Amino acid sequence: MKIQLENVKPADIEKRSFAIITQELGARQLPAENESVIKRVIHTTADFDYVDALRFSPDAVAKGIRALQEGACIVTDTQMAYSGVSKPALAKLGGQAFCFMADEDVAQSARERGVTRAACCMEKAAALGKDCIIAVGNAPTALVRLYELMEEGKIAPRLIIGVPVGFVNVVESKELILAQDKAPYIVARGRKGGSNVAAAICNALLYQATGRSL
Amino acid sequence: MKIQLENVKPADIEKRSFAIITQELGARQLPAENESVIKRVIHTTADFDYVDALRFSPDAVAKGIRALQEGACIVTDTQMAYSGVSKPALAKLGGQAFCFMADEDVAQSARERGVTRAACCMEKAAALGKDCIIAVGNAPTALVRLYELMEEGKIAPRLIIGVPVGFVNVVESKELILAQDKAPYIVARGRKGGSNVAAAICNALLYQATGRSL
């Protein structure tokens, strides 16, 4: 069997990928303000289901970009999402990324109280007292605790990226965020999502905030 | 709107998730030796397409587990996949994880030769001279270079986890691996995959190698 590779220069691979995504979307129109986020998530997952699954509160993308340009930090619920966030782009804007999942105080608090570490991470994000975007790519318990902390007035995220993945309370945790109006959100409705999706959305916002072309 | 959350203890969430996955697979029989890998990938992605997409060379799972038990290292093509690999499980077996993407010599070599950093990472893996499992979750160029290095007799991976994602040469790079018989493989045929999928497959093998229940 002869396998034919397409000859694309390293610097052009991403551009070519986005061109293929645009072509395959065909006549399907995406709202201009959400297009770069949607396409970057498809680029990351090769999954066109996200065209319908991704839900945006009004001006969520613009609000996220503005927050980053004003130096907001990004708090993720996993080390994987943390790893995936473009630190150079974030640093350019004076921002910083945090993930508290490996912190000993988080592990201890979770053990003592019988809650997940991810939920405790949200409390630590609230205690941080910084302007932040919360990106949840894994744990619905993080999203539920975040919702409670918002209800209690303990945190007011500049944007919620709510894309946990899985089977237990994942759909429900996202519906909680979709039903509230305290914070702007980008949510992947349904079961799908992931740390890679959370990082991709962060990066789509970061690239726009720093004027990168794609 | 009242959103009802299922009451599941933190320690039971994973077990409950796997039970739901098993239930939804219904009558669909998975080969016993591949079941834990397939289910963990679905757990990570909430995407049942992987039931058909994942392809295993004969005894790939058993060979991967044996390699890990013999202290093989894991080389990933992204920091995200590296982050996702269970380091405690790997350490128990005397193994180590590597990702060379952020290395200055890799960046320099890629620039000079007009190739991707991911391709250079595979050369660095070959030069490592260690027993290794290569886990590619992102860059088809890594998989293509790995194939060439195998053809040149410069590397003989104990297992290839070939799950890059995307649109440019992704399908083709996987077909290269599926068509060779020099190394055992676990490949996600088609466009889908990702760093999260690569890490999930590593962890499914690691958990079995260390006798963890799920």
Number of E-type strands of chain A: 6
In order across it, which strands form the biggest sheet of chain A?
1-6-5-4-2-3
The assembly state of the depicted protein chains is: homodimer
Strand content of chain A: 5-15%
Ends distance of chain A: 36 Å
| Portion in helices of chain A | 40-55%
Taking pLDDT < 50 over at least 5 consecutive residues as the criterion, the unreliable ranges of chain A are none
Query: So how many helices of chain A?
Result: 11
Most extensive protein-chain contact, per-chain counts: A-B, 49 and 49 residues
Q: H/E series of chain A, N to C?
A: HHHEHEHHEHHEHEHEH
CA radius of gyration of chain A: 17 Å
Structural class of the secondary structure composition of chain A? Answer: alpha/beta
Summarize model confidence as the mean pLDDT of chain A: 96
Biggest beta sheet attributes of chain A: 6 strands, mixed
Specify the overall morphology of chain A: globular
